[in-house]
Specification:
Elements: E1 2-10, H1 14-24, H2 29-37, H3 42-60, E2 70-78, E3 82-87, E4 93-98, E5 101-108
Antiparallel strand pairs: 1-5, 2-5, 3-4
Helix pairs in contact: 1-3, 2-3
């Protein structure tokens, strides 16, 4: 059985969150939570929040024990981009693009992952 949780428009660039998401693939939930708890990056806290939401989905919606589940995948997808501008000399501006991400955590109780 697959259970997922999704965080949308999280204020971090996808390129900064991808390395941690690759580490978590296939890990048991307890180990994945430990890695994200002690991770030093902003991405660790954001992925941990989504991971805890997925665990809550398993326990409340599916009425199963979260101990049997593993992280099947963590998807970091491009979200909307906020466009801002910095003032420059002679009345010009410099565009600044502030990236956001969608974080999707998929848990499964298959042993083959």
């Amino acid at each position: 059985m697959k259970v997922q949780a999704l965080s949308k428009a999280v204020r971090i660039a996808p390129s900064k969150a991808l390395p941690l998401s690759r580490l978590l693939r296939g890990l048991p939930i307890a180990k994945a939570l430990a890695i994200t708890t002690f991770g030093r990056t902003k991405a660790a806290g954001l992925i941990r929040k989504t991971l805890k939401s997925a665990v809550a989905n398993v326990e409340n919606n599916a009425k199963l024990s979260a101990d049997d589940f593993r992280v099947e995948s963590v998807f970091i997808e491009q979200g909307p981009v906020m466009k801002r501008f910095w003032a420059r000399s002679k009345g010009m501006v410099r565009p600044v693009k502030k990236a956001t991400s969608h974080i999707r955590v998929v848990l499964t109780n298959d042993k083959s992952v």
